[in-house]
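4.2 Preliminary Data

To establish feasibility before requesting continued support, the project team ran the inverse folding procedure on a target of 599 residues. The structure was first converted into the token representation described in Section 3, and no sequence information of any kind was made available to the design step. The complete token record follows.
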């Protein structure tokens, strides 16, 4: 496994627009990597002011009068985060001489197998001098990475009045430029698939190219749901002279936020394919990468640059965590939703934290709330959903749409509008009234039109509320997008408790009946297929039949893979083995029923 100086075997993925907006400030000096969303510049500017005051840094507002103000806001916030983290890290290393609280916490959080931890304990036990220990700390302690995320689909055009601005002013382009111009030495995580125009734009920034030593100041991570898309994207970047330093595999459904379902491909088989073919992937892309760099007159690394494989989506026990590391040779495992209950790592307002803590399996569901038209993991009784229903009751459904990040519909004019906006919903409801529908059919269509949430505001407001900041633009209603794994955690946890749970030192689950992550994902895919079939008009078209049959075949192949995998690990699984096999066989029978229905 290629650890490349990483002390931990987990990372905290991006969550919403605001839940991890300041996570690096909280955990990076302790060696833990996390990911910030950088698409929403208004909330970012408010957080920059907040943290400038907290840590006594000078603050000058970046107003719309400032040239390229959106990108400047992103750059300035990331530079501030970088400065704060470095300051805290220096203080931590120096604390050995005075109070050692943070330094001791750094080592206490490390896994028991950590060589770094063992070496430090040896230095103390051997009564090494303060100067020698201090020098060792300076040379060996490492920061967690301050990574950033851009959802590539969020690349809508911006306007100055009715004038459409150039492509470089599109939302994702602005965020990318803001990151590229920052002082960070970290990675950008690109999620939600290909955006060739955005990916090509990265060629303009020197920090993404290798230096004399073959290192990158800024690395590229792509979040993918299957090997084929990773191969396509890796080669696309390589042709530009850009290198993908990490392939981050995420479950299509058993995750938080937007759920980009595969055609029935399951996480285990996908990781197996990655692990089996990673050498081919790296060697193929490296050959293309070398050729492109040579043509550009850039420095060409003599060997394949360090490249990682990571995984995330539904992991919830130390056993699952370790299995991913050992079976698939992943370098890091993403732990997302459980960290929403850890105030030392994420920022969640108290009301939302109570909703998350109390949520059971039935409260967590795949919704159609996203204006993107992509399934969205949701929780019942969120304050945003309550607000949405109250607006419907008053006859005023929809949002004012002040930010327009998700405005993509151009059916009603040249300037795009959002499907969660009051303007769009009013138009669609007026159209609906003209239809000669039955009451039941009308109600179904009404629900479809009005179920969209203003995520631009809802996913940004929690951090503002938690820090008592201005929410005049966002409002106080909160959207939250935990994965199904949230159901198995209750209460509020310290950072140490959560990390010890990850490494198997304690167990903080609220039940002993939590399903295995692979079984949970399989169930979600079977349910997803059933819903797709229920929604389709019968008899199915040839195209629909082909899709359903492919989906079922992939699920059955996945079940067969898991049967073999669990059999190979029967001894390690112990009493859980029989239950896992019973679950797989039950899903097999259910899928056979689907085949009968479609015949």
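Position-by-position output of the design step:
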């Amino acid at each position: 496994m290629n650890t490349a100086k990483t002390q931990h075997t987990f990372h905290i993925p991006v969550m919403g627009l605001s839940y991890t907006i300041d996570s690096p400030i909280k955990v990076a000096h302790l060696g833990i990597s996390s990911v910030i969303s950088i698409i929403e510049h208004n909330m970012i500017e408010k957080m920059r002011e907040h943290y400038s005051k907290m840590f006594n840094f000078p603050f000058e507002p970046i107003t719309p009068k400032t040239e390229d103000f959106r990108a400047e806001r992103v750059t300035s916030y990331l530079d501030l985060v970088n400065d704060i983290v470095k300051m805290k890290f220096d203080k931590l290393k120096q604390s050995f001489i005075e109070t050692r609280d943070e330094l001791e916490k750094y080592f206490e959080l490390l896994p028991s197998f950590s060589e770094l931890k063992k070496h430090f304990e040896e230095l103390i036990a051997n009564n090494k001098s303060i100067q020698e220990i201090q020098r060792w700390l300076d040379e060996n302690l490492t920061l967690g990475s301050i990574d950033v995320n851009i959802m590539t689909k969020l690349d809508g055009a911006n306007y100055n009045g009715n004038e459409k601005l150039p492509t470089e002013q599109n939302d994702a382009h602005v965020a990318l430029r803001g990151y590229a111009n920052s002082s960070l030495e970290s990675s950008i995580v690109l999620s939600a698939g290909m955006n060739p125009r955005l990916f090509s734009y990265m060629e303009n920034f020197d920090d993404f190219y290798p230096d004399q030593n073959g290192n990158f100041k800024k690395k590229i991570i792509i979040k993918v749901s299957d090997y084929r898309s990773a191969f396509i994207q890796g080669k696309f970047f390589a042709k530009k002279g850009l290198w993908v330093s990490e392939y981050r595999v995420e479950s299509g459904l058993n995750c938080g936020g937007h759920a980009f379902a595969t055609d029935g491909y399951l996480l285990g088989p996908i990781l197996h394919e990655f692990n089996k073919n990673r050498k081919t992937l790296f060697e193929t892309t490296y050959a293309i990468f070398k050729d492109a760099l040579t043509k550009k007159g850039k420095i060409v690394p003599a060997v394949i640059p360090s490249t990682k494989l990571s995984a995330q989506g539904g992991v919830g026990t130390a056993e699952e965590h370790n299995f991913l590391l050992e079976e698939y040779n992943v370098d890091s495992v993403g732990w997302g939703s459980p960290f929403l209950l850890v105030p030392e790592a994420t920022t969640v307002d108290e009301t939302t934290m109570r909703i998350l803590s109390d949520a059971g399996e039935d409260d967590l569901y795949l919704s159609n709330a996203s204006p993107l038209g992509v399934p969205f993991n949701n929780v019942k009784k969120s304050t945003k959903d309550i607000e949405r229903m109250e607006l419907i009751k008053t006859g005023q459904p929809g949002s004012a749409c002040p930010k327009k990040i998700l405005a993509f519909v151009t059916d009603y004019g040249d300037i795009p509008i959002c499907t969660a906006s009051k303007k769009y919903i009013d138009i669609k409801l007026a159209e609906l009234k003209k239809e000669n529908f039955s009451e039941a059919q009308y109600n179904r269509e009404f629900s479809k039109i009005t179920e969209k949430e203003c995520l631009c505001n809802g996913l940004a407001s929690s951090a503002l509320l938690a820090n008592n900041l201005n929410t005049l633009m966002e409002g106080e209603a909160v959207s939250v997008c935990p994965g199904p794994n949230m159901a198995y955690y209750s209460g509020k946890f310290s950072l140490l408790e959560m990390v010890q749970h990850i490494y198997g030192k304690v167990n903080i689950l609220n039940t002993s009946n939590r399903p295995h992550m692979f079984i949970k994902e399989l169930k979600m895919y079977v349910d997803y297929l059933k819903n797709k079939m229920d929604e389709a008009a019968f008899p199915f078209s040839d195209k629909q039949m082909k899709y359903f049959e492919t989906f079922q075949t992939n699920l059955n192949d996945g079940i067969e893979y898991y049967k073999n995998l669990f059999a190979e690990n029967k001894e390690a699984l112990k009493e859980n083995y029989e239950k896992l096999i019973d679950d797989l066989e039950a899903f097999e029978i259910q899928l056979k029923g689907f085949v009968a229905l479609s015949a």
